[in-house]
Fold:
Amino acid sequence: MTSPVMIITRSIRNTFMKTNSFILKFILLFNVLLIVVSNGKTQPIETEIISSDKDKTIMCFIYHRFGDSRYPTTNVSIKDFESHLNWLKKNNFELLNFSDAIEYLRSDQPIRKIAVITIDDGYKSFFKNGLPLLKKYNFSSTLFINTETVGGGDYMDWTMLKTAMKSKVEIGNHTHSHDYFMNRPVDTRYKIFKDEIELSQSIIQKNLNFTPIVFSYPYGEFDAEMKNIVKQLGFKAAAAQNSGVIYSEGDLFMCPRFPMSEAYSGIDKFVEKAKAKPLKILERSPNSFELPVNRQPILKLTIESTDLRLDQLQCFVQGGKCSFKIIEKNTDKATITFQSTAPITKRRRTLYTITVPDKKGVWHWYSHLWIDAKIKE
Structure:
């Protein structure tokens, strides 16, 4: 027989189900401590863990050059960049640096609209054209630098980096040389990779009196052991370069970022990405990103499919076409295989990009990177 106290506590719990995590934890603690006494016997109250952490997301964007049309594949116009910042402000996004955003994901803070602007490599065009706009909007950002090039050619020097840090720019580690580490033989790759990260950390500490706590893989290329090394070195998280939405249940050492370049930085395309949600991956096979010998890899994903319109699922392959097959489906998850319809032969990095709308018309996004280290750039 259900006691009146149990009915009351269940009612309280249901009333506040969608409130912030502090209140939810208070209710949970109340339920755990409460004991109902009836006819001289004790009856433990039913309890359940209530958490909304799984719904936290971060919209993260990657930029390289600003107003430098010599390099269209890594450049955005000043006009487009300001349109991005203006849209984020008007739509009430809170701009955090990368490490603070990761802390938000891991915390008990209530859900907020969070976006992150990241910049890789540290080109002077960021200091000249990008940073003034971030200052205008009072937005934080994270700049990943490769220390070997600081002060050379088109790269910011240490004085510029110090100035940027005073304007809410977090500095992240991007290795020392920005090498193609996947080209290194396995027997030397990991020592070289680790040594470079540690060297870069020491150089940044010496020149900026600061030690980075976030990392970005050069060219977005890495394997499982490289990811483990970044973890072991004590970083909070690591950024990749495949497109998608960061979420609290995802792997925070391969965080996706939407790349911005002249071909994809128009405001319509930016908004499309800024409104996306994560396609949550429950299982993935293979776990490797290296392109197999047959050059026509099959990617098998088990996804969380509640409320998704799988009849509108789409798959895209850079420079080609994609086929897919739903091999298992139930009310909350589905297992699907994806494959390029032709061998991948011309690109060093190729993405399988998968998108699907939910019943509200919001698109969920995931991409998987394939690396062909035999192709030189």
